[in-house]
Amino acid sequence: MEWQILEQYGPMLLRGFGLTIMCWLLGTVFSMALGLLIALAQRHGPTPLRWLLQAYIEVIRGTPFLVQLFVLYYGGPLVGLRLDAVPAGLLGLTIYGSPYFAEIFRSGFRAVPIGQIEAARAIGMPEHVIIRRVLLPVALVSALPALVNFSIILTKETVILSIITVPELMYQVQRMSTETFRYLEANLVLALFFWLLVETISRFGRKLETRITHYLIERP
Amino acid sequence: MVQASSVEIRGVNKFYGPFQALKDIDMSIAPGKVTCLIGPSGSGKSTLLRCINFLEEYDSGEVRIDGQLIGYEAPGRKMSARKLRAMRRSIGMVFQQFNLWPHMTAIQNVTEGLVRVRGMKKPEAEARAAEALNKVGLGDKMGNHPSRLSGGQQQRVAIARAIAMEPRLMLFDEPTSALDPELVGEVLTVMKTLAAEGMTMVVVTHEMGFAAHVADQVAFMEKGELVGMDIPDRILHQPEDPRIQGFLRSYHERNSF
Ligand SMILES: Nc1ncnc2c1ncn2[C@@H]1O[C@H](COP(=O)(O)OP(=O)(O)OP(=O)(O)O)[C@@H](O)[C@H]1O
Ligand SMILES: [Mg+2]
């Protein structure tokens, strides 16, 4: 192996990694937010909206991210949606991730004992306050591991953004590979960076979990 | 003495699909009186209790709190959510499973409604909450989360959460049924104090001792019907209806040794 090659390509790879992190972070935040809105709308919205959202969930979950991204980026301009690669990638990630997050929130909501909601209703608490003060915090405890898990899965979906020329890590790795034929080195760098990212996220996730659930651990 | 509400229940029916859970229930509860609901499992006690604050929607008939219909503007026309919430503010409820909010400490459980529903400032709410917790004997556990409290303590926090809102009517759904026997007393003691202060209370219970000594009237339900309602002595010691006799016989068999 020839690692000297990294002197030349290192900065590029690092920039790519930076963009990967940004795309992952924003993509996760946006798709989680959209997923939460979908789950709430499915819980509180009118029936037709619920059907519509269920159809959305089925369609998005039933198709590969690659295809969705292609349709969005190359098909979008046909209907007047002309986006640069990075915004298109972020929008794609948001759309792709949202139904999974919606399902995670939905099962989190189901895990909230109905009595805790009724206790809030019984003192006359408005529904939107109940959502914010009782439903979400209690649901988060059971949903957190699945939220972290899917966020980790999303890190790996970011490589698909290279297809629509987002210059993230995969894109740079491929460029280095084709320019130098150092496939092995390039892909080892890719693996190392991803391992680093995933490890950081799961550590952070575990920290968050102990923080959020500290009060549930019974200490008689 | 608290300002206490009256409850009037007239011809209330409740269906779950084809199944009729409440059959033409009539009941009057005067201000400051304690009414115990007893009866076998599945007889509709919880359903009736929950109709009083409209957690359960009755299908026909009327439930009036201080003369005001709850849940409906007029027969068949639902009350607005805002109006219903306003009425619920003066009705406290205590559940079998406590239903404290697990992510909040004891005092946070109590202040929550004061701040979010009554619109109190936090320091004022905390003072009021501390007072309520002291009243139920939990002044030293205010910072504990529910998971760090015994069942009896959790139920007393739940009572504090309700009374801090200054209700004029309190509903209890088997408040001691989930408790270990040695913890039942501490909860009943708090309830007796409330009763002595003149709170209107409706209590679903299997604690016949409480019904006998604290209740002003005892109502016996079976299969969705109100079989009988009278002063405790006449229901618990000299019931005429064979259904009540049968229920009490099996109760005594279970509780003797
Ligand atoms: N949501 C529901 N859907 C269908 N049936 C219900 C529902 N809630 C209650 N029921 C039925 O209504 C009847 C009365 O129930 P309820 O909970 O009021 O009984 P209960 O007297 O409180 O019994 P327990 O002592 O076991 O608490 C029961 O037969 C029950 O199965
Ligand atoms: Mg019941």
Assembly type = heterodimer
Low-confidence parts of chain B, pLDDT < 50 over ≥5 residues?
none
**Uncertain stretches of 5 or more adjacent residues of chain A:** none
Main sheet specs of chain B = 6 strands, mixed
- Domain count of chain A: the total is 1
Order of helices and strands of chain B: EEEHEEEEHEHHHEHEHEEHH
Word description of this protein:
The complex is a heterodimer of chains A (220) and B (257). Chain A is an all-alpha fold and 220 residues long. Chain A has a single domain (12-218), classed as MetI-like (MetI-like fold), CATH 1.10.3720.10. Chain A has helices spanning 5-44, 47-61, 65-75, 85-110, 114-122, 127-157, 169-180, 183-213. In chain A, helix 1 (5-44) packs antiparallel against helix 6 and helix 1 (5-44) runs antiparallel to helix 7. Chain A is flat and about 70 Å long. The mean pLDDT of chain A is 91. Chain B is an alpha/beta fold and 257 residues long. Chain B has a domain at 100-166. Chain B is built from nine helices and twelve strands. Chain B has helices at 45-52, 81-88, 106-116, 122-135, 151-163, 181-196, 208-214, 232-236, 242-254; strands spanning 7-16, 19-29, 34-38, 60-65, 68-69, 72-74, 77-78, 91-94, 169-173, 200-204, 217-222, 225-230. In chain B, the strands form three sheets. In chain B, strands 8-9-10-3-11-12 form a six-stranded mixed beta sheet, with helices on both faces. In chain B, helix 3 (106-116) runs parallel beside helix 5 (151-163) and helix 4 packs across helix 5. Chain B is globular. Classes of the chains: A mainly alpha (220), B alpha/beta (257). The A-B interface holds A 113, 115-116, 118-127, 129, 133-134, 137-138, 141, 215-219 and B 53, 55, 81, 85-89, 91-93, 95, 97, 99-103, 112-113, 116-117, 145, 147-148, 158, 161-162, 165.
Features of the shown structure:
heterodimer; A: 220 residues; mainly alpha; MetI-like fold; B: 257 residues; alpha/beta; six-stranded mixed β-sheet; four-stranded antiparallel β-sheet; 9 helices; 12 strands; 37% helix; globular; binds adenosine-5'-triphosphate; binds magnesium ion; ABC-type amino acid transporter activity (chain B); ABC_transporter-like_CS (chain B)
